[in-house]
Design a protein that fits this description.
The protein has about 600 residues and is mostly helical. It has three domains: about 1-55 and about 75-125, no CATH class; about 150-275, no CATH class; about 290-560, no CATH class. It contains 23 helices and three strands. A three-stranded mixed β-sheet has the order 1-3-2, covered by helices on one side. Helix 7 packs parallel to helix 9 (about 240-275) and helix 13 packs across helix 14. The longest helix has about 35 residues, at about 240-275. The model is unreliable at about 1-30 (pLDDT under 50).
Length: about 600
């Protein structure tokens, strides 16, 4: 701005004499932030490339090229290399003076520093130094559980890989050939974890040996690991199809199957018997501090477990009152538990065939799509699909989950739904679940973040659970504004899902910081929700192996609701829901304090107009 002012005065006729030296100094001063920004963006770009080379599975997931033949190196040398890289990434970042950067780059600086520093802090609790790992944070010494493990990750990664050309399939084969070494490294980490006192609770892992065994059936093409070889694209050369498939069978039989069978035997005979009986995160080395760290990271707040527990109790009480109103309005005669038993057992609320359940979700998705325009000014270009959860891991998985697509790779997002035990998948929960996992929930928010322009690559893929899951839960409430939840059962389903997230605040903190038993958490869940026993058990076991992660949903939703209430109250008739939603989403996923500051600025701007 200063340069433009000086030039305008000179062009206007020399009304102000400006020495050439002064002009040069002005240009230099104004250009300094831009030069600092250029160097800073160069650092972020190169650092992203370095980390993608260290995390080939993440590279595949986000569509980063060149890593599709490899797995993460979990050898002692590979882990040491990641630690050195993290130290170097932090040192390079700290060489930049935040004050020297233009305002537009300071958010990038703050977010990247937070990510790296969190990865550095997590190492003292056994976490992988990789800063872009799963939202659940990967502990090096406990790298497997019923939700995430080497088998599930391998199947997911291989399915995500491009499989259009012969070269794509050669990459898949190379990765299959490298898989036995990755399995061996995982087993070595588990053994080292036992020595260090890091073991997961035994009960949630009860189905893990079977999950591994189901991954390597005798019929190679029935394995989820070889799914790409049952899905060749149309027009693929027949001779190449035959050659590649036969080679895949050979690799599977000679290397992959023996590796996973060895892992299965290790789980069943050695590892699970050595796992701990206790369920609390505080039972691990330095567990109290580790849990506090995970709570801070997952919620992006400084709330203590006790404070979160109290918030959960209050929310359970509030939502229960709303549920009782719906029961009364439905005309049902009986208690809360009579009503939930009716919802869990009446045949009218369940599909008889897996394909009917999947198609039911697809119908809901089609109905949601045209209702988005009145609520959002900007919608993502990336499409999404509805897909069944693979059978080998369905028994230990939740009701549904979202898997991001990759615009760079041309891969759509996927809303995965669980067809295991249809008697545990009621129709009345489907609308709320669809809102959360697809649109206007995860797919809409994550795809918009992936399509952000003029931001460093990490911003398109970093997912703060408090934001992403908070948005997903907030999105469930938008169903009513879009004309859904028209019958009392579906409305009860929406409230049941919100109650589910409130119960999480109580159960997670109860088990990990207040001495609750697993059965106490299950009983509390049953007492306050309409969820089936299958769902309740799977959910509680999830909280046990992912301490703190489940706290993000409700706290994020409460913050977004609070921001909306403030905007509605201050703007009155000027409040535009489309502009509000666009403003919440325009920076991608960010910590809640960053979101709050950004929305305060937006609200001031809107009020001034």
């Amino acid at each position: 701005m200063r340069i433009l002012l000086i030039l305008a005065l000179v062009i206007a006729g020399g009304l102000l004499a400006v020495p050439r030296v002064a002009m040069a100094q002005a240009k230099s001063a104004a250009g300094a932030p831009q030069e600092a920004a250029r160097k800073f963006r160069g650092y972020l770009e190169e650092d992203w490339k370095r980390w993608m080379a260290e995390a080939p599975e993440i590279a595949t997931e986000v569509g980063f090229p060149g890593q599709n033949r490899r797995w993460t190196d979990d050898s002692p040398e590979g882990i040491a290399r990641r630690k050195r890289l993290l130290d170097d990434s932090l040192a390079q970042l700290q060489a930049f003076a935040r004050a020297d950067l233009p305002e537009s780059e300071r958010l990038n600086y703050d977010l990247y520093r937070q990510i790296l520093e969190a990865a550095e802090e997590g190492q003292q609790y056994g976490d992988d130094p990789m800063p872009f790992a799963s939202v659940a944070q990967r502990n090096l010494w406990m790298p497997v559980n019923q939700m995430e493990n080497i088998g599930a990750q391998a199947a997911r990664t291989l399915a995500l890989m491009p499989h259009h050309t012969v070269a794509d399939y050669e990459d898949i084969l190379a990765r299959l050939e490298a898989l036995p070494r990755a399995v061996e490294q995982t087993q070595a980490l588990l053994q080292e974890g036992l020595k260090r006192g890091y073991t997961p609770p035994r009960v949630p892992l009860r189905d893990l040996p079977k999950q591994v065994a189901d991954l390597v059936p005798a019929d190679s093409l029935a394995s989820a690991l070889l799914a790409p070889f049952t899905q060749f694209p149309a027009g693929f050369p027949e001779a190449e199809r035959t050659r590649l498939t036969e080679r895949a069978k050979t690799v599977y039989t000679s290397g992959v199957t023996p590796a996973f069978r060895k892992l299965h035997d290790y789980f069943a005979e050695s590892y699970l018997p050595a796992c701990r009986e206790s369920i609390a995160a505080t039972a691990l080395p330095d567990g109290k501090a580790a849990y506090a760290f995970r709570v801070r990271w997952q919620t992006t707040t400084n709330l203590t477990p006790q404070q979160i527990h109290e918030i959960g109790l209050a929310e359970v009480q509030r939502i229960r009152a709303e549920m009782d109103k719906v029961i009364a309005a439905s005309g049902f005669r009986g208690s809360f538990h009579d009503f939930t038993e009716f919802l869990r057992t009446d045949p009218r609320f369940f599909y008889g065939q897996p394909e009917d359940l999947v198609n039911g979700y697809r119908v809901i998705a089609k109905k949601i799509d045209p209702q988005l325009a009145p609520l959002f000014g900007k919608l993502p270009r990336l499409p999404y699909g509805v897909t069944p959860i693979p059978a080998f891991k369905a028994p230990s998985q939740t009701t549904a989950y979202y898997q991001p697509g990759a615009p760079q790779a041309g891969r759509p997002g996927q809303f995965f739904v669980n067809t295991y035990k249809l008697e545990a998948r009621p129709k009345w929960e489907m609308e709320a679940l669809s809102m959360h996992e697809s649109v206007p929930g995860h797919h809409l928010q994550i795809a918009l973040a992936q399509e952000l322009e003029n931001v460093p690559e990490f911003r398109r893929h970093m997912g703060y659970s408090a934001f992403t899951e908070g948005w997903g839960l907030y999105s469930e409430s938008l169903g009513e504004e879009m004309g859904f939840y028209s019958d009392p059962y579906s409305k009860f389903g929406q409230l049941a899902y919100e109650m589910w997230r409130a119960v999480r605040l109580v159960a997670d903190t109860g088990m990990h910081s207040m001495g609750w038993s697993r059965q106490q958490a299950i009983d509390y869940f049953r007492e306050n929700t309409g969820k089936t026993d299958q769902d309740v058990t799977v959910e509680v076991d999830r909280y046990i192996v992912w301490p703190g992660q489940a706290l993000a949903y409700k706290l994020g939703q409460l913050k977004i609701r609070e921001l909306r209430r403030k905007a509605e109250a201050r703007l009155g008739a000027k409040f535009d829901i489309r502009k509000f939603h666009d403003a919440v989403l325009e920076n991608g996923a960010v910590p809640l304090n960053v979101l709050e500051a950004r929305m305060k600025q937006w609200l001031d701007e809107q009020a001034a107009h």
